[in-house]
Design brief:
The structure holds 2 protein chains of 2 kinds. By secondary structure, chain A is mainly alpha-helical. Chain A has 8 helices and no strands. Chain A has one domain: MetI-like fold (Orthogonal Bundle), CATH 1.10.3720.10. In chain A, α3 crosses α4. Classes of the chains: A mainly alpha, B alpha/beta. Chain B: It comes from Marinomonas rhizomae.
Chain lengths: 216, 242
């Protein structure tokens, strides 16, 4: 049996943290992109489009992320699509993230008075011009804090990718525990690393919220 | 020749019959005040004229063109109809100048310099030339409403619709907004106002339209009508507000 010094444990965990960060970033970027598309679909007053978005949101908010990950990983390979654990993790986290972001953003857009749309319309602005010049600049200010706040959920969500065999922080923690039989030490360290990733984001989100409230 | 024409306009909100066959003809240069109790359909009528609300029967034309709520139509309409709202609806993330310049630059495709010249002239007209770089939240309600007027004027509309534009203002700020409107009326712009300001309707307006239960109940020359109402409903209304 190989001996693991504290240094070895920490080194391995730090290495794995990179993958957690990378997966979080990929999921966040993917989720943001999809959520933007869905938000645009929802804003068109087309009922069919709006229904698609509603079903999408219900589906991915209403089922556990772990099941989504299993389905992406095992389901897709059963259908004949080979997908790596990395690919399945990104895909399912993207779906999950976008389903929540689109709801968060809808709330932000809805807080803008209807009069902003009407005034734009009466001035002859098109739908896209209204979005670009009037709605988005205001909505982005409102949305930044809750969006940053939600990124914490994404980071914690990446832990589930360990179950489908993607080697990130939690997975490496499990592996180290199997080798050292020191669960308390290992998992405390793992939790601490997650905390160090998430806490600054929470703080930043609170800071943004305060800044926004003051300038209103 | 009529600038705004409504012919047998009916409007329903679900089962609620809000406008019951409105006929109205407004000529260029007229200042028409629409008065009536809340719920009589005044604001709805105004919002039908600029395509913010859909109507179910009848026809509305502005400057000879038919009004619908279709996007492309509404945008063409916006070139001839300006709208001022009760709550100003200025864009809070833009300065006063940007508010006024926005539509001329992106809708009329004017150059920035040209739009700025117009914007400054319009702000001058409403007495706010010095507020060009201020943000709306730094202004009083009356000033914000005057910016909204300048913003609408910058599109050089043929008719200006005003939806209870002094109702959200503190009493001492009402005067400054009405003064601007009076000036515009003198310059010959066509105004259609939904208003509770009876004195303004009588002194500045050329015609008063009294709405009751979704119909044009009585209308006529403003001074005559307000001093000598024919129907009991208008007598009651005037008695209640004066």
């Amino acid at each position: 049996m190989i001996e693991f010094s504290n240094y070895d444990i920490l080194r391995n965990l730090m290495f794995a943290t990179q993958w957690t960060i990378l997966l979080s970033l990929a999921a966040f970027i993917g989720g943001t992109t999809v959520a933007l598309t869905l938000t645009a679909m929802r804003l068109t007053r087309n009922p069919a489009m709006q229904r698609i978005v509603r079903v999408y949101v219900e589906l991915f908010q209403g089922t556990p992320l772990l099941m989504q990950m299993f389905l992406c990983f095992f389901g897709l390979s059963m259908l004949g699509y080979e997908i790596s654990a990395w690919g399945a993790a990104i895909l399912s986290l993207t779906l999950f993230t976008s389903a929540f972001l689109v709801e968060i953003w809808r709330g932000c857009i809805d807080t803008l008075p209807k009069g902003q749309w009407e005034a734009s319309r009466c001035l002859g602005l098109s739908f896209l011009q209204t979005l670009r010049h009037i709605i988005l600049p205001q909505a982005i200010r409102v949305a930044t804090a809750p969006t940053v706040g939600f990124s914490v959920q994404v980071i914690k969500g990446t832990a589930l990718a360990s179950v489908i065999g993607f080697v990130e922080l939690t997975k490496v923690g499990t592996m180290l525990n199997n080798a050292t039989f020191e669960p308390f030490k290992i998992f405390t360290l793992v939790a601490l690393i997650y905390f160090m990733l998430c806490y600054p984001l929470s703080l930043y989100s609170k800071h943004l919220e305060k800044k926004f409230n003051v300038s209103r | 020749m009529s600038l705004v024409n409504l012919h047998q306009v009916h409007k329903y909100y679900g089962d609620n019959h809000v406008l019951k066959g409105i006929d109205l003809d407004i000529k260029a240069g007229e200042v028409v005040s629409i008065i009536g109790k809340s719920g009589s359909g005044k604001s709805t009528l105004l919002r039908c004229i600029n395509g913010l609300e859909q109507y179910q029967e009848g026809g509305i034309t502005v400057d000879g063109k038919e009004v619908t709520t279709e996007d492309i139509q509404v945008r063409r309409l916006a070139l001839s109809v300006g709208m001022i709202f009760q709550n100003f609806n200025l864009f809070p993330h833009m300065t006063v100048g940007e508010n006024v310049m926005l539509a001329p630059t992106i809708v009329l495709k004017k150059s920035k310099a040209e739009a700025e010249t117009t914007a400054r002239a319009m702000l001058e007209k409403v007495g706010l030339a010095d507020k060009f770089d201020s943000f709306p939240e730094k202004l009083s309600g009356g000033q914000q409403q005057r910016v909204a007027i300048a913003r609408a004027l910058a599109m050089s509309p043929k008719v200006l619709l005003c939806d209870e534009i002094t109702s959200a203002l503190d009493p001492e700020l009402v005067g400054e907004v009405l003064k601007v409107l009076e000036q515009l009326a003198k310059e010959g712009i066509t105004l259609v106002l939904v208003t509770h300001e009876m004195n303004f309707a009588r002194d500045v307006g050329s015609r008063v339209v009294f709405m009751h239960q979704g119909k044009v109940w009585e209308q006529g020359d403003s001074k005559t009508l307000l001093s000598n109402p024919q129907t009991d409903e208008l007598k009651q209304f005037i008695g209640a507000v004066l």
